[in-house]
Fold:
Amino acid sequence: MTRVQTFTFSPYQTNSYVCYNAGEAVLIDASASNAAEQSTVVRFIQSQGLVLRHLLLTHAHIDHILGCAFFARHYCLSWQAHRDCKTQLRFAKAQAAMFGTTVKQPPPLNAYLQEGDRVSFGNATWEVLDTPGHAPGSISFYDRDAGFVMVGDVLFHDSIGRYDLPGGRLPILMRSIFEKLLTLPDSTTVYAGHGQATTIGRERSCNPFLIQ
Structure:
């Protein structure tokens, strides 16, 4: 069964995740903004004796890509994301300046993910779901066997993602939530880019943005 380790980093309090199964792992998002935070992730992977197979982005907002350059270099791996993340990654430094911070330029993507793709590591195979609306190229990763979904900033405990940043649109975001996420089993654990984990069932019944 896939196990999940959560790390919350940077002034943005953004979650990164190391997910691992049968000795292999993936890193979801790169919120580690400095050497100490980056070393925390590396030490965990080493302590568990894991081989990192994939670097995955749910989307390319600045708080999710602060450590992209470091992890790509350290593990000699390329980040994988939706094609629509290319522009934000290319202009990462300008994006950082808009938010009053700095970032080392992430390497360009050379592998793209979209709806219907699969990501495999250990004995796990994840399904890629297109979930735009919060950001261009936003995707989610669904582990059907383990019963969880990595949603980035699409859905939160008692909230939904912002849609007022460039490329965000509320109707598209709500369609992603209702057609891609709320169709999953109620028991599905939701791991978001910020805050605590929740479940599809809880958000369906309690999230004030989703109650109809």
User: Anything to note?
Assistant: The two ends are 35 Å apart (CA to CA). The first strand starts at residue 3 and ends at 9.
